[in-house]
Amino acid sequence: MEDTRPGVAYIASLELLKVASRLPSNKNRSALVHTLARNLDLFAGDFSPARRIVLTPPQNATFKELNNYHTKEYLDFVLDPNNGDEKTKAELGLEDDCPTFEGMADYIRLVGGAALTAVSMLREAQCDLAVFWDGGRHHAQKEKAAGFCYVADCTLALMALRRITQPPPSTGPSIKMRTMYLDLDLHFSDGVSHAFHKTSTGSAQLLTFSIHHAAPGFFPVSPLAALPSPDSDPFTLSLPLRLGASNRTFKRAWKCVERVRTAFDPDFVVLQCGVDGLAGDPCAIFNWSLGPEEGSLGWCVSQVVNTWRGKKILLGGGGYNSPNAARAWAYLTSIALGHPLSLDTEIPDHAHFPLYAPSFTLDVPAGNMQDQNSDDYLDTVDSAFESISTILTERLAK
Ligand SMILES: [Zn+2]
C-alpha cells in the first residue's frame, strides 16, 4: 500500500558526521547527535504513525553555489587551504575561535550543500519538513568565518527559498512566497540578520527574527541586536533577553513571535534551534528547559511544527554540552515526526551511553538560576513588538 504520511527529510550522512565531528568548537557532537537518534529508533520507518522519516544525504555544494553568498576570496582559501598564509587566515577570520581543521573544505561543501538539499526536498509535494542538525551556522559571514561558523548554511537556505516562486496564475504576475527565519540560539543571529538587513528593506518577502541574550560585550555585538524601535526595519527583528531566561520568559516572548508570524504569514519557516540556551550548557546564561511545558524549547518548536502553516526547515546551531545537544535534537526530531518522545525515556545502551550520566534519560531540566527578565522588562518587550507588528502590517499592505 502507498505510504501517504507526509515526509520529514532528515539530512545526514556518515561522511558529514565524520567531518562535522572534527568541528573544533563541537568535537564529536555530530556523532553523538545522530547515534542517539538512531538508537532511539527515530530512523525506523514505523516510528511515527503521523509522518515518515526520509534519511537524506547532503549534496556537496559547488564553488558556484557557495559563491552565491560567500566571496571568491574566502572560498579560494577555505576550499583549498594550501592557498594562503597566516595573514590571509587572519583576514578570513580563521584564527582564535575559528581555526582551520582537517576536513574543513569537505565540511563547508557538505554543510552548505545540506542547506540546498533541504530546500530541494521541500520542493517535493510529499515533504513538508526538513531537519538538519549540523547546520544553523548563523555567525558565518560573506567574507569570513566567525563565532565557530565557517559556512553560512542558514543564509544559503534562505537565498534558495527566496528563489522559489508560486506557479504563475493564468493571468497576472507570479506571487513571491514569504519566508521567515526564526532563531532560538542563545546568541544573536548576526550573520543571517546582516545578510538580509539591507536587501529586505522595502521587501515583503523575507523576515529574520532572533531571540537571544544581549548585554554589553556579549558576543556578537551588533546594532541590530536591540529591541525594535518605530524607525527600525520591521523585517529585521531582535528580541534580547536578560540572564536566566526560563520557560516562563519564553512563554511571554512567544506572544511577540506569534504577533509577527500572524502579521507576516510565512509560506516557509527556517527555524534555527541552537541549544546553548538550555540549562546545563557551559555558556550558563539562560535557564531554559527542553520540555514539555509551555515556553520550553520543545513547546516552542512544536508550536511552529504543528500550528504554523507552510513548510519548515529545522536547523541546529550552538550547544556546547554535547550529550544535552544530542538529547535536545533527538527530542525535537520526535516532535518533527509528530510523535514526541517522553522526556522520561531512558537513553538506550549504545557506544556513547556513559556520557549521559548521571540521569541517563532524555530530559534536560531547568536549573536553579534566577530569571532576571522582570515583568517590567517583558512589558517593554511586549509593547515594542506590538508597535513593530502594526508597522509590519502596514508595510505588507502597501
Ligand atoms: Zn550560540
CATH class: Alpha Beta
CATH fold type: Arginase, Chain A
Number of strands: 8
Q: Helical proportion?
A: 25-40%
- Strand percentage, roughly? 5-15%
By secondary-structure content and strand pairing, the structural class works out as: alpha/beta
Radius of gyration: 20 Å
Strands of the widest sheet, in order across it, are 2-1-3-8-7-4-5-6
**Count of domain modules:** 1
Put simply, the count of helices is 12
CATH architecture: 3-Layer(aba) Sandwich
* Model regions low in confidence, pLDDT < 50 over at least 5 residues: none
Report the CATH superfamily.
Histone deacetylase domain
Largest sheet: 8 strands, parallel
What gross morphology would you assign? globular
SSE order: EHHEHHHHEHEHEEHEHEHH
User: How far is the first residue's CA from the last residue's CA?
Assistant: 49 Å
Summarize model confidence as the mean pLDDT. 95
Which cofactor or ligand species appear? zinc ion
Family: Belongs to the histone deacetylase family. HD type 1 subfamily.
GO cellular component, one term: chromosome
EC number: 3.5.1.98
Subcellular location: Chromosome; Cytoplasm; Nucleus
